[in-house]
Amino acid sequence: MRSRVLCGAAAAVALLTTGCGTGARPGEAAVTAGASASDVAAYPVKVSDCAGAETTFTSAPKKIVTSNASSLEMLLWLGAGDRVIGTGFPPGAGTMPAQFADQAAKVPVLGQAVIPKEKLLGSGADLYVDTFASMGSMGGGMGTAPTEQEFAAAGIKHLYLHSTACATMVKGPQQDLSQVEADIKTLGAVTGTWARADELVAGMEQKVGVVRTALNGGAAGPEPSYFFFDYDAGTKQPMAECDRQVANAVIALAGARNIFGDCDGDFKAVSWEDVVAKNPDWIQLGVRNQGSDAANQKAFDTAAQFLQTFPATKGLKAVQEGHFVRIGSEVTTIAGVRDADTVQQIAHIIHPDLVKDGQ
User: Mind listing the domains of the chain with CATH numbers?
Assistant: First the structure.
């Protein structure tokens, strides 16, 4: 059987300059955009971490632990959810797509935040899917991540989602969903669900393509400026979604300009003076899913009320004109299949004459 080295969507944005003939390092942990199921449907499969260290899979993993709900959701979409034996950062009520809610709720929770090191190493997993490498596995006061030597000693292979874990290493901003799609294909290759991964990525590309065609074919004019207001991160000091964050790609594809797209990185604390100076045309009320439509609408109302009454923001153009986008945080800032749906929904709201259907 052929050994497959998976070269990433990072190649499309020139993460590095050698390997795979596309601009990526050998073993980049993602699948080249456009690769078909037949191209990768063979073991062994080689992937790599953010620094290029390779991991080889000679067969599909049978017991998977996920670092958080986003990697869990990807595996559910791929049809590999029955292999997940535990997760950290479990999904909140109402945050999973309806068709996966019951299955996701049955996944054992190994940690309400980062999984404790001893629990992860003793989980019996043969694969750990990590979303947080660029943040030191969300370390600091939240726990210490196992070393690669400790993972190996426990028999656990360590796979990173490059669209988030390696985002700060990318040269240039995320302006499309190629990295997210490559992560889906990587998981498909590793878990043996290649055909399903191809289907999911094709569906995402079709949705984004509809928006692109509509915007290119109409007189959209200058891109409206857009602020993702992470209300749940706190109101004392706003948090910017920078150029390496998935949200930057979602906003760009929807035909808008992220007002903090010139900030280098994934997230950055900014000031309200910074927001006022940029005076966005649209503001997304980025609240976490509250578990029901009624609770979500209440949360959106609360976020809007803050902007309408806070002295620094009540005079903003978007606030004065009521240009609020009521779409939650998770489907905008977290890598996943539903990012393409969010592109359509935002585009429909801010370009209603061009993008007729946001669903």
Answer: 4-199 (3.40.50.1980), 218-350 (3.40.50.1980)
